[in-house]
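Example record used in the benchmark description.
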Amino acid sequence: MKTDPVLILLGHGSKTQKTLEEMEELAANSRPLQRGLTVAPAFLTLLAPDLAQAVEKAVASGAGEIHVLPLFFFSGKHVLEDIPARFEALRTKYPGVRLTLREPLGRHPGFFDLLRQAGGFA
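Model output (structure tokens):
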């Protein structure tokens, strides 16, 4: 049985526990924003769950549609190479699941509005 679609928020990761706590809080606070959407955290490095673990958990819960949103601002090595490579490996592993890699947060058209607001100019 298929469950709600899953949005995986993919952060970089850190050695600090605070990063894990903030990511879990972000995912939890995002859940009520759209009914019928499961939001889950994942990390590229240093913290768990990593991307493969988060996708595996979503698939095991019955998700047939998973979107991965990299919470990165710039097109560095992780965005250009690491994330796409890991993502393609997951697509191969789960051919029956609709996996979509979203553009990184920094490329989103609404990102500049967010910068304005965060900078106190909204």
